[in-house]
Amino acid sequence: MGRDRRRSGTLLLALTLAADTARAGEPVATVAPGGLVRWSGAHLLECERDGRRWAPLEGACWYPIDLEAEGELELVRRSTGGVAARRVRVGVYPYPVQELEVEEKYVAPPADQLERIERERRAVAALFRLETPRRFAPPLAPPLERLPASGRFGARRVFNGQARSPHSGADYRATPGTPVLAVAPGRVVLAAEHYFAGKSVFVDHGDGLISMSFHLSDIEVEEGSEVRAGDRLGRVGATGRVTGPHLHFGLRWHGARIDPGLLLGADAVAGVVEIR
Ligand SMILES: [Zn+2]
Questions:
Q1: Is residue 108 domain-shared with residue 150, that is, in the same domain?
Q2: pLDDT digit string (tens) for 53-108?
Q3: Among 113, 170, 204, 231, which residue has the least CB neighbours within 10 Å?
Q4: Final residue of a structural domain among 90, 118, 150
Q5: What is the CA(147)–ligand 1 centre distance, in A?
Q6: What are φ and ψ of residue 236, in 5° steps?
Q7: Which residue range forms the structural domain that includes residue 256?
Q8: Residue 274 domain-assigned?
Q9: Which residues surround the ion ligand 1 when the cut-off is CB under 5 Å?
Q10: Which runs of consecutive H residues, i.e. helices, occur in the chain?
């Protein structure tokens, strides 16, 4: 629908973008919060959204859409042919509400822990701004040797009756002690015990992709060490804010919290929204 109109619109668009007054026209697709958009093209040079820029990957610009993104987003790319932009609409929030019971200290942390929690939040936020050379290609290797069906990405969380941030990862049930594996080559940028996430390992895979493994019983890598795909990071446990042993696995890509199922597991990449 409207492809010709869109094509002539693109020419016009390149001109207006050059004048730095970008308008991408009507949305060309709807994407779920926490989703991923792929815009393939020839001779791509650079991809951009919200002033953040990155390199194309396998002949396409990939745009991770944050779990709490809303409204319309403008996606920009540069090729040898010039600058182009598209608008996508973020769909209605599709994930259910999940009620959980946890120890009260994870709902109303004691005053003497607030400074620690804030310090940990800042340390983690800094990782999501890292931009190092890319060391992965989709799909990623599984974080558990046998990857069960994942759980409840995006669920709105209610702990002991109180609303909290939505669930920004996938929960995989596994026996305590099961090895947790690196999903791609990278560098361990944080390995520590955090208040909510428990024993946690964060790996920078380059190109702004950070993988996170939470609630481990043991951490088996050092901060600063290099890992290959399949290397052991630690073991499944139940540390931090949990209702039982499981692996919480999360991905941030260019700062956006996305559904890990889009990059790993049996349906990897199948749910990516293609635009043209
Ligand atoms: Zn989780």
A1: yes
A2: 999 999 999 999 999 999 999 999 999 999 999 999 999 988 989 898 999 999 99
A3: 113
A4: 90
A5: 15
A6: -60, 135
A7: 100-268
A8: no
A9: 169, 171, 248
A10: 3-18, 114-127
